[in-house]
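re the bet — no i am not wrong, look at it urself. input seq straight from the record:
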Amino acid sequence: MSDIDFDLTQDERKVLELLGKLHVSQNKNINEATIRKKLPSKYHGNLYETIKSLHSKGLLRYYRSQNYCLTDEGKKIAEKLAAELFKKTYGDLRILLVL
């Protein structure tokens, strides 16, 4: 993984986490309205700038008008962030299931 992962802002991380949870890839695209609907409202104000920033870093690609998909590197980072979020959220549940 490159060090672009560590240069992400909180808004970019949140968008990539969402795209990782939704399993967006090069072949499965997502509309900007869907991203806005699934994100918490505090991230809505800067969503367009966040998308432009992710595009300029080479993690997000324009698919069609207001449709986006992830590049290969973007997909790897998004899946990694989604897995970390899943572990953080449901990490203690594993202990309960073992008992």
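see?? The two ends are 36 Å apart (CA to CA). told u. also The mean pLDDT is 87. so pay up
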